[in-house]
Structure formats: C-alpha cells, structure tokens
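Re: [help] complex structure
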Amino acid sequence: MPELPEVETVVRGIAPHLKKRRITQVELRRADLRVPFPKGFKERLEGAGITGISRRAKYILIELDTAETLVIHLGMSGSLMFREAPFKKHDHVIFTLDNGKKLIFHDPRRFGLMDLVKDTKTHKLFAHLGVEPLAEGFNSVTLGASLKTRSGPIKTAIMDQKVVVGVGNIYASESLFQAHISPLRKANSLKKSEISALCEGIKNVLELAIKSGGSSIKDFVQSSGKPGYFQHSFEVYGHTNKPCLCAAKHGILKITPLVKKITQQGRATYYCNNCQK
DNA sequence: AGATATTCCTGGAGGC
DNA sequence: TGCCTCCAGGAATATC
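Output below.
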C-alpha cells in the first residue's frame, strides 16, 4: 500500500505521540507477519524508551534507548493508529505506552514486517537501499549513473529500491507523466535532459503527495484515521481511457489522447502515448 | 549479471 | 444471493 509519502505521513502522525514515551507492553496477536517476529521481540521492547522516530525508504524507524531500533514496514495494507480496545480483525500488534495509549498495527494482507535491529546502516533490510529521493544525494548525475547499466523499462528502474527508494507503483506512473517520458523506454536510453526532468518529476510528485497527507485508494489512512487526499491529484494513475490532460494543453486534436493502462512486471502502468515519449 | 515471473495474504469489485 | 476470477500503495525469491 504505502509508498514514501504515505509512510512519511504516518511517521509525522505518530511521532509527536511517541516522543519521549516508554513502551510498557507489547501484545503479539499472532506469531508472524510476512516473516516471523525476531526472537525475544516482546521482551526486548517492553520497558524500552523511545528516543527518535524517522523513516528510511518505506521503513519506519523507532529508535530505542536499548541501542536497538524497531523497524516497521507497512507492506501493502498496513497501518499504525492510536486506538482503544475492542481490537479488530487484523490488529496484529498492540504497543502500549507509559501514558496508557495504544498504538495498533493493523494489516489485512500481512505483507508488512517488523524487526529489531542494532545498526540500520548495515542491516540486511537496508544495506542495498539506494538514495532518498528528497535528499541532496538524488540528482540527475546520481540517477543517470544508476540508469546507465539498466536496459529494462524506466518504470521498473525507478521502482527498484536500489536505484532510488520510496517510489512505488502510483508515483512511478505519476512521475513519468510529469517528465513526459514513456514508462516503456529503456532506462539507459534517457537523455540528460530527460533524466533531469524525471528527477524533478519524482521530487515534485512526492513532495506534493506528502503535503496532501498521502494517497488513499483503498484503505490507506493516516494515523489520525483520516484518509490522504493526493489521490484526487492523480493525473494518470487509475485514469484508464480518460482523456489525458495534454488534450486541453495542445488544443483540439483530431483524436483526443486517452490514458492507457498496460502491465509491466505484473503491475499496472498508466501513461499517455501522446505526451509521454 | 540482469530481466522477468512468481509468491506471500486478504478483501473488495465485478461478471454471471 | 452466491460463486468465481481478477485486482490491489511491496519486495524477496526463483527462473531463465
């Protein structure tokens, strides 16, 4: 479910409520998510003080005073919310804080995961991750270098967390639309100017989405329980067979360009073959 | 090595 | 109403 803007929205939503609190109780309502919980998960967390909350790629990082970091990935359908009992179906983990508040991890599809790690730089989940798209290190030079060796489609490349983190299926289509680049282009065929445009497209789309509290298609909710509203700003995602925005920009055309839906790597891609080349 | 297909899981939507 | 198939914000793994 959540891509970078949604995870960032969750982090911003829960951070003020977690800051300087202590975890007093952890209830695991099943033995695993996508993977088993690490050994001693509950015991290692209970009593730990929270010293920081941040995000790396699509992972939520909760730093503890035990020299460990609680890592949470929301997968496709995960959410974190402060709620009270009664618990619902798919409420898999309940963290109780020293002020009595309960942070509930809810994840119907169970593609999420949790781990406790000593060093998030070298840990297996993080070692291969590429650059953060909203950090200094992401620019047309670094993106160009990663794309140089890739002959697969550009859409697949920007969704690869080794190239740039946080861009998922929605924002890949939206960024390419912004940059006027076809998702079918071979990644290593992009010109310098196109790589720059793609960089800007990715940054703009992600930043705007964060400002909107993320996108809610099916079940994404912020930690407040409210949906995000960036889905109303989608320009191609989900717009199958609707007129592309370029129709208006370029005046009356003989044939109105329509947004196409295709499949790449088993995932839906939306684009306009009139304005994306 | 790099590209592509498959897999994990549940629920909602749409077809018949 | 019910049953069936397909599809969904991710990403590791297997296969070519």
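The first strand of chain A starts at residue 23 and ends at 28.
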